[in-house]
Predict the structure of L-aspartate--glyoxylate aminotransferase BhcA.
Amino acid sequence: MSAQNPVFIPGPTNIPEAIRKACDMATLDHRSPDFAKIFRPAVAGVKQVMGLRDGEVILLPSTGTGGWEAAISNTLSPGDTVLAARFGMFSQRWIDLCQRHGLNVEILETPWGQGAPVAAIEAALAVDATHRIKAVLATHNETATGVKSDIAGIRRALDAAGHPALLFVDGVSSIGSMPFEMEGWGVDIAVAGSQKGFMLPAGLAILGVSRKALAAMETAQLPRTFFDFRDMLNSYAGGGYPYTPPVGLINGLAESVKMLTGEGLENVYARHARIAEGVRRAVAAWGMTPCAVSPELYSDTVTAVVVPEGFDGTAVVTLAAEKYGMAFGVGLGEVAGKVFRIGHLGSLTDAMMLSGLAVAEMCMADLGLPLTLGSGVAAAQDYYRGQGAAVRAAA
Amino acid sequence: MSAQNPVFIPGPTNIPEAIRKACDMATLDHRSPDFAKIFRPAVAGVKQVMGLRDGEVILLPSTGTGGWEAAISNTLSPGDTVLAARFGMFSQRWIDLCQRHGLNVEILETPWGQGAPVAAIEAALAVDATHRIKAVLATHNETATGVKSDIAGIRRALDAAGHPALLFVDGVSSIGSMPFEMEGWGVDIAVAGSQKGFMLPAGLAILGVSRKALAAMETAQLPRTFFDFRDMLNSYAGGGYPYTPPVGLINGLAESVKMLTGEGLENVYARHARIAEGVRRAVAAWGMTPCAVSPELYSDTVTAVVVPEGFDGTAVVTLAAEKYGMAFGVGLGEVAGKVFRIGHLGSLTDAMMLSGLAVAEMCMADLGLPLTLGSGVAAAQDYYRGQGAAVRAAA
Amino acid sequence: MSAQNPVFIPGPTNIPEAIRKACDMATLDHRSPDFAKIFRPAVAGVKQVMGLRDGEVILLPSTGTGGWEAAISNTLSPGDTVLAARFGMFSQRWIDLCQRHGLNVEILETPWGQGAPVAAIEAALAVDATHRIKAVLATHNETATGVKSDIAGIRRALDAAGHPALLFVDGVSSIGSMPFEMEGWGVDIAVAGSQKGFMLPAGLAILGVSRKALAAMETAQLPRTFFDFRDMLNSYAGGGYPYTPPVGLINGLAESVKMLTGEGLENVYARHARIAEGVRRAVAAWGMTPCAVSPELYSDTVTAVVVPEGFDGTAVVTLAAEKYGMAFGVGLGEVAGKVFRIGHLGSLTDAMMLSGLAVAEMCMADLGLPLTLGSGVAAAQDYYRGQGAAVRAAA
Amino acid sequence: MSAQNPVFIPGPTNIPEAIRKACDMATLDHRSPDFAKIFRPAVAGVKQVMGLRDGEVILLPSTGTGGWEAAISNTLSPGDTVLAARFGMFSQRWIDLCQRHGLNVEILETPWGQGAPVAAIEAALAVDATHRIKAVLATHNETATGVKSDIAGIRRALDAAGHPALLFVDGVSSIGSMPFEMEGWGVDIAVAGSQKGFMLPAGLAILGVSRKALAAMETAQLPRTFFDFRDMLNSYAGGGYPYTPPVGLINGLAESVKMLTGEGLENVYARHARIAEGVRRAVAAWGMTPCAVSPELYSDTVTAVVVPEGFDGTAVVTLAAEKYGMAFGVGLGEVAGKVFRIGHLGSLTDAMMLSGLAVAEMCMADLGLPLTLGSGVAAAQDYYRGQGAAVRAAA
């Protein structure tokens, strides 16, 4: 794999220079007041990106998986029931995690390619008169299928049912790239990871936690120490950290939120939407479709491209890596082989995206798919040039 | 705090250039075969550093605390009994973690400044005819007091008692700096962190796991997902990782073990011993003593210097930071205020250490302690120049 | 300008990660033996890249312009005559430099778009019975027009005329990217710069000097100190440097030659040829032509694309920078406005090049040129995929 | 040589992290408007550091030697007379350069250890009724002997003699570390290098040029192209550069002047004076003396320590490098073997300096010099702690 080409995996993303330099720090004494000078702006910026006003941000030296575990272990007790839809690899994994931790998961099976089933969620909540369901788990952006779910709709479903369950959202591959409104949507815990929209290396789970979720941690019985919010918040209050923090990553996060808010979150979202739409137009020009079954489900951070019957989507990814030194994502789980995935999030320009589309085309042509070289690129070019590319995109 | 001076905290350590550059990577697709090319030499090198032949190395995007949690949650079940001595802040924290996870901890209270009480451990094991004790927890190097414990002795105690308990060792601040022999000492799980002897930024828990401990994971009932060894080992077998790995840190670890084995582990240990002895001679020249109560307990990675009655050790640390831009460690827990700590592990030269001693002296003089400026430095100089400094120390 | 996109200027080129890290060094005492450990492999590698066996390599903290000045001031005396063809901005500048330094330049005026006129050179030498001409100056790759000259032909012309003049070649934008044979072509001084095929930042003039040229330095009367070969060679002999050397750049050069020879010079040249041919096919698909008037003149490092009459080539460059954050080169001198230039040298992949072609297309479409979006990209894709892209290109 | 220890050579200095990161740039198109955004603040900051108001700053991809050559070749003509004192290796080298370029140098021989002889200069000017002397050359800080000269005194001498000669000052190892006043002292050309007080890698000659010197360039007949101020200034006016500039170094210079002016030039000078005085107190404690013969000559950037008769100063430097991995400077020219040099300029803290003094002591003790270990360190400690160390020193 060439280290010269951008990556088009759905995270980790390409890391901007300024963030690489911010992460690459000499050792700083994390028990000195200097640590808080890094930590506090990072946290303040995350709140802005998440749309969180009243609540806390928790930073864990971990990943999205650790963020999921922290969300449930800090708020729930063994035997508690949670409601979750399964419609992709990442929603599946969170369900699995809950089960391993002794929760009872009420699973709403949903075809891959669709989003979280708002009506079914509302129905499940409506019948739960005893409020057995303690939390609703939702994957905002299912990275396996390129599907965006309607979190505001789930909030409405909770409200309509008058149900007090907590709302936990996996925003790992959406936060920082697509609009996310913790307060507006009444999200109780939002889980993000450093290596997606925040454009950092992997290694940090980033959680937004509402007051309501914080209250739940007082009674939660699931064991936790490394992930314990109480230790975190106690330490944060004094400008510290309960154990040795990954200072460089947190410094990088401070830079990341400065870049995102400097570009303007609306501009960041518009850039992701523009680049994504160019990809989708290329997909259409190839005569193919996204895995997401309808336009309102289209993710602006990843497109899972459905390959023709009889064709192995994984072959595109393998050939791109081996012949052209470029990384795409394979299909996972139920859609393994049926799709290949183009990540288009984080630090990207239209020009970079066009190189990804050009390579995808060459690979598919190499593999005998009947498409016209340049067709997808041209469709994206045509769209991009009409939109006015954002030269100032997070550099 | 000046970023120009070396740090003398007992971790994170000063990071060598080569390691900083290895960590600072462009994004690499962790699902590509390139990942294994980084991961495998890192793991092989860790085995060498830990003295592990038959067993597995687990790398977790976490810290030493996460490593402790992983050790117990992968091998034990709620209600299990573990035996542990409490003789410092870090042994205390591991005990607390076990209790939070529902284990029954049989605690051997031991004065701070002493090491793990081998005789008491042997006695406790001897009376445990039913083998209620599932694991013995030992802190190899208690970072709070600068005390090294006799792990080989604990192994002998287990053997003498014919007791089948697992032996878990916290080697966070010893591994890579002081001799450590997983096989030789019959250690079942050794926990290390990236930010000490491995000279990396924080963010990686590094575990060595024996076959016996691996067998225990099949029956362990403590919940875990993020830390689950089974997922790890299944993924490693195929050159992968169960979730997004911190590739840069692992690449840095590969560089670290190359540096350590390139210098020669015996040379690394000798360098640490030499630098530490210089520090202790300086302490003696100041008319003070280490917190560790006898020479065989002296740690080669950190010295907790006992300050005179009525004097606040924390003031040395504060003044050093504020006036001289240099970081030392404060006393923690029972010895808060009674000691200040000089970290002397990782990437250090004699010359760097002398600057730390010189600053400590100036601070103590500034604070009115009756010592002679230059006295500690001279004692260390005299020792170092007789030993032949290691110019080739991990650069 | 976005720092995320590759640059497509004809130098400085994109800098590979490994070279950036090699250049970014802590201070090293250049009077210590450590300096020679960096300097010597750099020099040995440059010899290999230049095809120099019997002679010396000189490294000057300077640029190509300084290299030109060093070439003449170390070998010639005021009033000496040199023979040079003028067929582009860089051949013009070298002529101007000679004139400023008091040389008499016999200029062979040659249309821009053509190469060094071998027949005219031979004719000029043939009539120079008194050997008034002390040196022939030739620009191997005229960066302004994208024209490659026939240096072997000039050597044959010299030999045919039995003329003893020195042969000085500007290989700034060819060496390391296109075949160059100092010995084979009888080149007496070859001038290269760090920021082209060597993929380094600007700051180093790299000269190959034959024995014959070294002999000339004994009698040369042009004043020089900073550029004096004698001081250089005297210092090199002892592993030193006559003044403070740019150690980081030289370390980067050592890495560069390791990368070039590691990839294999033949592979490096083939990669440049492949990428260049793709660019030319794109140009043809756009209905345009290179400035170079015939195929044997086509440069493999830069293509000057002739834009239609009435159209301003500079506008493409300006729009690409402002709207798409991508850098191309403007036309210079006689061809200002008539061409825009696409640099395709150094650290590049096919995928990167396709992003450059895609942006050039969008710009030309934006500016109203009647081309089909995707047409040039498709032509290049078609060519590249047939050639088997070099994933392992200098990373 | 260990890369972990600071260097104590009189340049290049230790490079601060922020400057290393500023220098380490991805390629930026130097013909785009982005270049001026880097160049202009760099130039503005240099003016501030040099105390230059009415004149120009010239940045050359070169070194101090190139700066000297540029100073004379842009202002003088073959056969012109210049007046210069010889009192160290660097004043000697500038004289040699002038002679090689065809100037007539009137040399005032001055013992090494003394500074520029103001009275003798005045006398020489007074007798030059025909104003044969076109320029006076002065070395502000003679790096070979650690001697600071009185530039204001030379200006007074010129004024007293009513002599119109230009005043050229080598400020390579003083500017940015010691007070320098181009306007106040009536300096016509000041020559600095990137690798001393500016704390950058070598590779940039930095010149301040007065209006009077700029006027001289119109009539100067010495040949120059690479160093030609006219090309430079023409290009600067349009935000450009006459050839490919070393963009990273210039970006680093912009960071450097931001750091220097951010710390406050007075604070920078006071820090250098404080650290230097500590070194001199250590030297006195060792029973030795600086090469500079009287206190008003003491340099604040380098101390040449005179070793006892019969002792080889070079041995200290060799042993420090080989045994302790630390770099000092050897004696040069007339004082070779008689001194060793301690550089104390650029990015340094008191703590770093103490490590240098401690190592120098160990080396001298190892070599049998009858000093007390710790004595020099203690003298410096005593001084530093009374002065209040500058934690915020250029980090």
Observations:
- Chain A touches chain B through 58 residues (CB under 8 Å).
- Residues 114 and 207 of chain A are 26 Å apart (CA to CA).
- The first strand of chain A starts at residue 55 and ends at 60.
- Chain A has two domains: 17-262, 264-387.
